[in-house]
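FIELD: query
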Amino acid sequence: MLSLTAVQLGAFPLNDDTVSPGFLGFGVVVALGVATVFLIRSMNKQMRKIQAPREAELIQQEWERAEAEKAAKAGGPDAAKAGSPDAKAPPADGA
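FIELD: result
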C-alpha cells in the first residue's frame, strides 16, 4: 500500500518549475538584509566615537616627556619651567 507521501509526490512531480523557496525563504532573506543594515549603522556609529591619537600628538607627548626628564635630571631652574606652557616647542618637522 502506498503511503500518503508517495501519493503526494506522485501528484506533483519535482522540477525547477514547482520547487521554490516560497514566501518563507524570501522573508528570511529580507530579515537578514534588514538586520545587516542596522548592524552596519551601529558599527559606524561606534567607530566614530573612537578617539585615536594622531601621530603629531604622540610625537609632542614624547618630546614633552623627554624635556621633563632632562629638566628633572638637571635639577636647575628649568625643572620648574618644564611643565609650563611657555616652554620651548619641538622642531616643526617632528625630529
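FIELD: remark
The helical segments are 4-11, 22-49, 55-74, 78-81.
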